[in-house]
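Regression check, 6-O-phosphono-beta-D-fructofuranose case 342:
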Amino acid sequence: MRIGVLTGGGDCPGLNAVIRAVVRKGEGEYGHNLVGFRYGWRGVVEAQMTDLTIANTRGILHRGGTILGTSRTNPYKSDDGVPRVLDTLRREHIDALVTVGGEDTLGVASKLIDDGLRIVGVPKTIDNDLYATDFTFGFNTAVQIATDAIDRLHTTAESHDRVMVIEVMGRNAGWIATFAGMAGGADVILIPEEPFDIDDVCERIRHRHRRGARFSIVAVAEGALPKEGTMVIQEAELDQFGHARLGGIGTLLQNEIEGRTGFETRVTILGHIQRGGTPTAYDRVLATRFGVEAIDAVHEGDFGTMVALRGPDIVRVPLSDAVKELKTVDRRIYDVASVFFG
Ligand code: F6P
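Current build output:
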C-alpha cells in the first residue's frame, strides 16, 4: 500500500514519535510505502509531499514539533478544497491516510470518510479535549511545563508577597489548568467549564491573606470566562475553524485582582512554551503506542477509526465518536483541586 501521513492543527510534543512509529512498522514489518503530506490538510490540497522512510525518520523520537510541518487549513473552507484533496490522493495513488490531529483535523477526516476515503485517526492535542480517548499525547508534556512554571512563580510570589496569575492554554476545556494547578498547588483554578465570579476569586485571595498567607497563585485557562455581566472582555479574532485566538484573560484578572484587593499582582502568559520542546517519556510512549496501533489498523483495513487510550489499553473507536463532542474537565477531578482553593 501507499499510505499518506499528515499532522494538522497546533504542533504538539509527540508528533514525531507517532510518525516514526507508523513508518517503522509500516515499512519495516509490512513493507508499505509511506508518504508525508506537508502542513496538515494544506499539503493534501496543494500536493506538497515528501517520502517517509525508516532512514529519514531516525532520531526524531525525542524532538518536539513535527518534521512534516502543520497548519490549521480546513479544506471545507474553500470551494475547491475537497475536490483538490480527492484529486491529489487519486493522482498520487494514496491508498489510505493516517491523520494525526485534534478535533479540527480529525473533524475534516471524519467528513472525508463519508466521501469514501480510507483514514485512521490519531488523537493529538495538548488540550486533552478529544472525546473517546482518556488522554491525548502532548497533554502530559504541557502539564509538566506548566507545573514547572508554577513552581518557579511560587518563588517570586513568596519573595515579593504578590499574587501571581498564570494563564495556560485550553480554549474550550481546562485540563491543563486543572492538572498543572493541582500539581503546582494553585490557590484558585479558573477553567472554561466553570464561569467564575471575580468577587469570589478576590474573596478567596483575601481569605488566604487573613489566615496569614502573604501570596497567592491563580491558574487560569485562556478560555476561562467570567459569569455573564460580571467583567468586560474583548471579542477575539477567529481562525479557519471559527476558534477565537485567545490570550488575555490573565491580564484582565491581574488588573481586577490588584484593583479590588490592593495586593500587588503580576501575570505570566505561558503561551506556546507549553507546546514546545521535547516530549515527556509518558508522551513518547503513548505516541509510539498510538502510531503502531494506527498502522496496524491501516494494514488490517480497519478504516474510519481512531486509536485511543482506554485505561491501560490502546483500542480503536469510530472516528465519528471522537469528534462528536468535546471532552471537558471531569467535575470529580476539579472538585479534588478545589479542596485546596483559598
Ligand atoms: O489546540 C491547541 C492550542 O494550543 C490551544 O490550546 C490554543 O488555544 C491554540 O492551540 C493556539 O493556537 P495557535 O498556535 O494557532 O495560536
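Comparison notes: The longest strand covers residues 2-7. The pocket of 6-O-phosphono-beta-D-fructofuranose is lined by residues 9-10, 72, 102, 125-127, 169-171, 222, 245-246, 275 (CB under 6 Å). No diff flagged against the previous build.
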